[in-house]
Write a structure and sequence with these properties.
Helix content: under 10%
Strand order of the largest sheet: 1-2-3-5-6-7-8-9
Order of helices and strands: HEEEEEEEEHE
Number of strands: 9
Structural class: mainly beta
Radius of gyration: 60 Å
Number of helices: 2
Largest sheet: 8 strands, antiparallel, barrel
Shape: rod-shaped
Oligomer: single chain
Distance between the termini: 155 Å
Strand content: over 45%
Length: 273
Amino acid sequence: MLAALALLSASASATAGVQAPPSPHASSSGSADLAPMPATQPIQGNPPDLTQPASVPAWQPPPPDVAAPAVPATAGPAPATMAPKPAEPKGGPKRGPLWTEGKPLIGGGSKVGAYIAPTFKLTGFGRSPGLMLGADFAVIVNERFMFGAAGTALATPLPAQRSDDRTFNMRTQYAGVTLAVALLQVRFFSLQIGALIGGGRVCLNDERLDRCVNRAAMFVAEPELGLSFALTRVLRLVLSGGYRFAVAQPWSGPSDRILSGLTGTLGLRLGKF
């Protein structure tokens, strides 16, 4: 009986020792104190150095023998937010109004020049050849269009018969405005077409009286086709040929057929081209 009690007492003492181990520090009241908490480690203040390469990169490209995964194609209608491209209107270019204000011939960027030239004209009055001396002046626009005036006079009198078969010395002169345009321009060569439109007078002079015994006014139109050669920057040589159409008022002198005739002109143009 005593042995059983001693065994139970020893078991209870062992159980109490396992559940509450004695504290190494005891208070004055006889109760045990709690164990102190471990000290907190200080937080490292310096950030990691990202400039140094890592020993193992975060991503490495796949080896070349490994094929990349195919992306499946999406089938279906286009999103509603994508508007279709508007179709271009068919037909020719848009036409402007039928009547519009034209551009001026002499604009802000036009090149304007001028020249003056003595002229030597060989012509015929009936069967009598004659030499006429004159002058020509014109303004050149864009090196192509020429507007000016010209005049010429018979240098030496020519014999002409009146209706009563009397012979007198005929003198004539005429002048008018000139219009010309360059059809072809190749370096120093130019092909031009132009015309003189004006009027003048014709006179039958009596040498004994030294005055005109018969005179008449006449209308003159003289178209010409000419060649221009640039000799220097300020000098042009012009050779032209044409025909003079003359219509005189009724008089007793030569007819219009005799007053008209072929012309050949030599001119030396001096100016700014």
